[in-house]
Each structure stands twice: as structure tokens, then as C-alpha cells.
């Protein structure tokens, strides 16, 4: 696991996952199956699900947000400080919204579906810029 911020950014290797994903909210007592589900999170208002768009459509689930899914393939430490801020800032400067899920091994970024390729380009630019920093040029 990597916790050093410069090393994390320089080695994050963003990878665009195939397909379209949606965020949706279901009642707490909804019966959800594993088909197409990427993530769930229980909130006071309901069960948030992130799932493949086709599976949501088949199940009659209304999407709240259509997204492209980008995985940072670096094995980041859950205690690492600053990675989310760094890529969120870069995406924000490019006017791309992002929704982030940190899992046990990788960070997963969901951006508007039409911005997927552009977001990967922005993240790779950030990665390249971090890789160019020499130890003597770091603050």
C-alpha cells in the first residue's frame, strides 16, 4: 500500500471501466440482487446503489446520475492524506464533477458519462505532472 501523496499521484494509473453506471436511491427494504450492482450505501433517506445502467433499466430503477467509472489502479492506503483532494481539484479545474468511492484497495471515481474520456485525460495529466517532480523541486 502506498501512502506518500506524490508517489500516489505519480502512480495512480486511471483506468476507464467499460459501460455506463447509475446512482439510484431505493427504499431501505428494497430487495437488491448482485446483478449489475457495483456498490451500496445505506443512508437515512434510503439505500443508495451504484449499478450498471442496463441492469437498472431492466429492474425498473430510475437513475439519479449517469456516470462513467474510473478506477485509480494504484493500491492506495486508506489512511493516505490528500489524494482525493488532488484529483478532485484537477477535475474541478476542468469543470468535471466527481463522486468518489474509496474501497479497500483502490479509489473509484464516477464522473458524468459524457466526461469519462476527458476526465481520464485530466487525471493522466495530473499523474504526469507529479511524476516530473524531482525530490529537490518538491515543496
Automatic annotation (TrEMBL):
It holds the Pfam family ACT_7. It comes from the Bacteria. Residues 68-125 form the CASTOR ACT domain. This is Acetyltransferase. Coiled coil: none annotated. InterPro entries: ACT-like_dom_sf, CASTOR_ACT_dom, DUF2241. Residues 2-66 form the DUF2241 domain.
